[in-house]
Amino acid sequence: MAHITINQYLQQVYDALDNHEGSFCAELLSFKHPHVANPRLQLTNPEDKCQQVLEPPYDEMVAAHLRSPERGQGSPERGQGSPEAGQGSPEAGQGSPEAGQGSPEVGQRSPERGQGSPERGQGSPEGHMPTLQLLRKYDLMQFADVTKAVREGNLLLLNEALVKHETFFIRCGIFLILEKLKIITYRNLFKTVYQLLGSHQLPLEAFLVCLRMMKVEDIDLDEVQCLLANLIYM
Question: Where is this region: Disordered (predicted)?
Fold first, then answer.
C-alpha cells in the first residue's frame, strides 16, 4: 500500500464504494492507513485525478483527503523539552497565610449546579441536539434545519437541508455522516404516527401515507415493512 500509484488507490476507493464496503472505504480515507506515508499520493491538486475515477460527491471528498497538509506530519514541537522544566518556583513551599482557613462557601451548594447550560444540547431520545442559540453563536446555521428535522421527524425538511447545504457539508467531510441521520428521522416520524393513532397495532398503510406526505414517492408496503423491521432491530 505504501508504493501504490494514485490510480491504483482511487480504484480501490471506487471498488469499495461500488461494493458498499463501508468499513474498507473508511479505512482507505483514514490518516492511520499506511497509504498516508506514500509520497506518490501526496498531491497538491488531486482534483483532476479524482474526477476521472470517482463520481460526485466522492471525488471532492477524496481530493480533500489527499491534499490535506497534515497527512502524516508530526507536530514540530512534540518532544521538545521546555527550558524552564525542572526549575523550582521561588514561591514553592511557602505557606499561604490563608492556608487552612475554611471558606464560608465550602459545603454550600451552588444554585447553578446540575443545571444545564442554555447553550448545551437538549437531551432527547436522538442524543444531544445543539440549540439554535449555539449554532448562531458559532455561525453554524447550516445545521439549524438538520437538527430541527431530526428532532421533529421531518424527513422532507432533512432532505431539503442536505441538498441546500450539500457543498458545505462535503467540504467539512461530514455529508455521509449526516445521511445516517435519516434512520433516526424515520424513527421519530413513525413515533409521531403511533402517538396520533394511539394504538399498539398500527396498519402499514398509515406509515405509507406518512412517507408519501414527506415526498417519498418510490416506496411500497413491502419496503415500509422492511424499514420498520430495521427500526425495531435498532
Answer: 68-129
| Cα–Cα–Cα angle for 39, 41, 43, rounded to 5 degrees | 95
Domain ranges of the chain: 6-66, 122-234
55 phi/psi in degrees, rounded to 5:
-95, 155
Residue corresponding to grid cell 490518516: 31
Binned at pLDDT 50, 70 and 90, residue 99 comes out as very low
Answer for the pair 169, 178: CB distance below 8 angstroms, yes or no: yes
Burial of 160 (0-12, 13-18, 19+ CB in 10 A): middle
**AA identity, residue 163:** V
Which of these ranges, 123-132, 193-202, 216-225, has the smallest mean pLDDT? 123-132
The whole model's pTM is what? 0.45
Residue with cell 518532544: 79
